[in-house]
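Q: Hi! First time doing this. I have a protein sequence and I read that you can turn it into a structure. Is that right? Here it is:
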Amino acid sequence: MASDLLGIGTSGVLAHQKLLQTTSNNIVNVNSQGYVRERTLIYTNAISFGTGESMSERVINQYAQGELRRDTSAFSASSMRFEQLSTVDSLLGDTSNSVGTAITAYFKGFHTANESPADLGSRASTLTELTSMVNRFHTLSSQFDKQSDVINDRIDDETKHVNSLLNNINEINKAIVRTQGTAEENLMLYDQRDDAIAQLAAKMDIRTVTQPNGSVLVNMSTGHSLVLDGSVAQFSVVPGDPDSRDKELQLSLGKSQTSIDNKTLGGGLGGLFAARRDLEPTKRELGQLAVALGDAMNQQNRLGMDLDNELGGDLFSLPSSEGLPYGNNSGTGATTVNFIPGKGSEVTALDYEVSFSSATDFEVFAIGVDGKRTSVATGNTVPVSAFEVPGHGISLDLSGTPAAGDKILLQPTKQAAAGLEKLINRAEDLALASPLKADKSSQNHGSATIALGAIGNTGAGSGFASNSLDPNAPQVVKIDASGNYEVYGSDGTTLIGVAPASSKGQNLMAALENPLGGPKVYGDPGNDPGYEFSITGQVAANDSFTLSYNQNGFSDNANGLALAELQNKDLVRKSSSAASGNDKMTLNEAYTGLVVALGNKTSQANTEMLANKGKLQQSSEIFESVSGVSLDEEAGNLIRFQQAYAASAQVVTTAKTIFDTLLSSVR
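A: Yes, that's right. Below is the predicted 3D structure, encoded as structure tokens:
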């Protein structure tokens, strides 16, 4: 009886000693990283009285743990995306970096110059604003590139961390398999492995499968294996194809290598790739804006006369770009992309792809922001290698010998803002004056006046020679006895054509016929002779009017006003869709749209981050309610187990007393 009582008491002391050890372990590890609350289960002795076997285990809800990992991935993805986007959004919102502010100041300079077009000081101020605007485009484009580099560097660092975590999980798996049966050591290893998996979940979206031997298989949410029994995969960052700056991930497991779709990664890595995708359209839209502005200013400045009595030239140079061949191309085909002068308003913010069906036949696709391709043109390199993509403002110079199936990526606007350069360094080169002047003879009997209309072309095919009017261009207008408008060359005798009196002198170039009542002389006066004019008022027979090159007309600001008015013209293509259209917006509207679009993405990322943060907090609280250590609960257990331990010790003492009494009774 005493023997049984001693055994019962001893088993109780040992059992409660273990309970006290578990409770103490929970208390001291309350702040330990990744620690999961433990408990010890005591079973009754199946053979006799007293306690039987005891088993220590971690208190964990596998479903809650899985939900916590998924929410961790979602929050990390959205917070990383927001972190990267907010940096650029703040940059765009800063007026000191604003291209929109620079554009406004630039056009304000033209308004100032127009007040005194012959004044070199006001012209110099405009040139300064031009230089400042170009520098602003360069600065902002450079900031975009730097942010892309930051993201790529973060991708490199995060990938190295992921590989380290995968190796760590694999090593802990091996240790757990080796130490099966040593419960206390395994509990610590389980905590370490769960902590490593939790860190991995913050990097990418993963799924786990527990094996009978205690190891855990780790897979990506797409099904790609990361940790298997005895083997582990590794990620590597590889140059993008064909754009090497667009780094991609490659997964290697043994001899197998797989390219990873970064859109499915999730976690912090997925957030970095998402932010990079969000920034790419903004960079191209900035380039599109630079091209539209530069081309419009070039075309208008060409239509004026500068302070050297010369026809205006280009103010800006527009960059060309080299196509990027795909890595699996077997031919030597190459493509250079150029912007077509005068068609800057047709340029989109899209990338393009040239796909060859043979060495000479090709098709051009526009690539939307969603990656979808839309065919926009087909062509052949025979007999010419230059090809204009209709409705898109770009031309392609094709060279080399492509093979069927080869593809080349074109990125016309990606670096266009960085490539925009000013071509003038002299204030005199601003062509503020009109190259034409119109006068009426002082001998006229009528009261009519002559007024210039739009000047559309001063270059090839126009009535302008080198800084003068061509002698055969319309220069003299005479009114015949019937009130018709006869237009002559500079000699006043070479008849070019006659506009009927019924035209009332309006848009004479378009109304000109030769002979009277016959075919039109000019099909497109805006191109040939490149200008238009009208005679308004009462004309009389033998009245005459003249057109001449505006020699020394430095006080004229007609073209300067047209240059300034470009600020209010719809010059930038609105939609980035592949379909050709006439939807346009002003330069400031384009920049505002660019800023708003990125701001909306940043706001969306912030909203998503806050929502995911709330969900993560909820799942974390659910998990901690089961697996976290509560000091109040453990303190209560400590008192309860201490009392039970003392009571069990008292049973041992009682057994000893009874045993001693029995021994003394037989002496």
